[in-house]
TrEMBL record:
UniProt-recorded name of the protein: VanZ like family protein
Record key words, sorted: Membrane, Transmembrane, Transmembrane helix
Pfam family, one: VanZ
Membrane as UniProt keyword: yes
Record field: transmembrane: 18-38, 65-84, 91-112, 124-142, 163-180, 225-243, 250-272, 278-299, 306-322, 352-370
InterPro entries named among the record's database cross-references: VanZ-like
Coiled-coil positions: none
Domain VanZ-like as annotated: residue spans: 33-141
Keyword Transmembrane helix: yes
Length: 381
């Protein structure tokens, strides 16, 4: 195969490929989405492979077809790249097709024991087709040298100790998909935690020890714009603290702006429908975007340690303010498509990512800010 032309990486390259951790993380996501809600397991008197000979599904939706096809494209791509980077380029494309297909068959078989899920040979076929597409894409990219050495790329771009920051930033687009009262406002967990604690200890001796529920006013337009701006400034500053040069910061800011714009539109489209993809662009959100762009521009020349410290301060302030924002009246209706509709399988994962992401970002920024003095880390980019 043409992949044989790709030079086998040395020992360092074999252990430093980002493809493996990304593959493990994405595989966990696929398993979660396929077996959610993980309850009600029982033998229904049907063989786990019976779906292979069952009639083709009579009803299907365009969303299901697209999701099952595209959901396995990254899996095929990552398996192919990971195997090629591990020194087996000849087997990479085959592994990128066969391994995800076997995983799809196994998950469909496991769904036989979940009353809320219906296994389908059409889903497995679409999954395998998506994996094949991803493997072909990886084959072409590897052959053309587009996917260069990860170690060389890190040496050119990443600050020492910046790998955790990069991992956190890679998760950000998923963390902001779950609906929130303020666009991009991840980390708002207190209203739901407070309500859960009150329900849990209602009527018990501990009820009197709980603080009374606080009723906060919604933020004013300027306050909401500021929250949007600083919610975006946190990942921007974290990115600035983790790359080496001014040009790399500019490239990161431009790429992040596109990702943020697309993530906001995708979140609204998933919740309200494609025709409402830009409903989140209220005047407050637009002002926040402009302010975030201004912060990104002004922070370009800052030393890396200063950028990391500002990320810590920014993230701490945003978390404190966001957890005082009450849930708007329409939020319950907004969440129906996630909690009860077609995205119910992603509901728990999306919520937890949204809650935990800013804390992970704060930890990554603090780690960079507390790096030992010396070297190029304290200099301006």
């Amino acid at each position: 195969m043409a992949l044989a032309r790709v030079a086998s990486p040395g020992p360092a390259g074999r252990h430093g490929s980002l493809a493996w951790p990304l593959l493990l993380g994405y595989t966990a996501l696929v398993v979660y989405a396929s077996l959610f809600p993980f309850e009600g397991w029982r033998d229904q008197g049907v063989a786990p492979w019976a779906f292979l000979s069952a009639p083709w599904p009579r009803y299907w939706t365009r969303f299901d077809v697209i999701a099952n096809l595209l959901g396995y494209v990254p899996l095929g791509l990552l398996v192919t790249v990971a195997v090629a980077r591990s020194g087996w380029p000849r087997a990479a494309a085959v592994a990128g097709t066969v391994a995800p297909a076997l995983l799809a068959l196994g998950l469909e078989a496991a769904q036989t024991y979940l009353p809320q899920r219906v296994p389908s040979q059409l889903d497995a076929l679409l999954n395998a087709s998506g994996a094949l597409l991803g493997a072909v894409m990886a084959h072409i990219l590897l052959r053309q040298g587009v996917l260069g050495s990860w170690g060389a790329f890190r040496a050119r771009w990443q600050q020492p100790g910046g790998h955790w920051a990069w991992l956190v930033l890679l998760v950000w687009p998923l963390a902001v998909l779950y609906p929130t009262p303020v666009p991009f406002g991840t980390g708002q967990f207190w209203p739901r935690l407070e309500a859960a604690l009150l329900r849990m200890f209602e009527g018990s001796a501990l009820q009197g020890w709980l603080p009374p529920a606080q009723v906060s006013a919604p933020p004013r337009p300027l306050g909401e714009a500021l929250l949007v701006a600083l919610s975006l400034a946190l990942p921007v500053l974290l990115g600035y603290a983790s790359v080496r040069t001014l040009g790399q910061r500019v490239a990161f800011a431009l790429l992040f702006g596109l990702v943020a714009w697309g993530s906001g539109g995708l979140s609204a489209a998933l919740s309200f429908g494609p025709d409402k993809a830009w409903a989140w662009l209220t005047p407050q959100a637009q002002l926040g975007l402009v302010a975030a762009a201004g912060v990104a521009l002004l922070a370009l020349p800052l030393p890396s340690r200063v950028a990391a410290l500002l990320a810590v301060l920014c993230g701490g302030w945003v978390l404190g303010q966001l957890n005082r924002v009450p849930d708007p009246a329409y939020l319950g209706e907004w969440l129906q498509s996630w909690e009860q509709g077609r995205f119910s399988r992603f509901h728990g994962l999306g919520q937890w990512l949204g809650w935990l992401w800013p804390w992970a970002a704060l930890a990554a920024a603090a780690r960079l800010a507390l790096r030992p003095s010396g070297g190029a880390y304290n200099r301006r980019p």
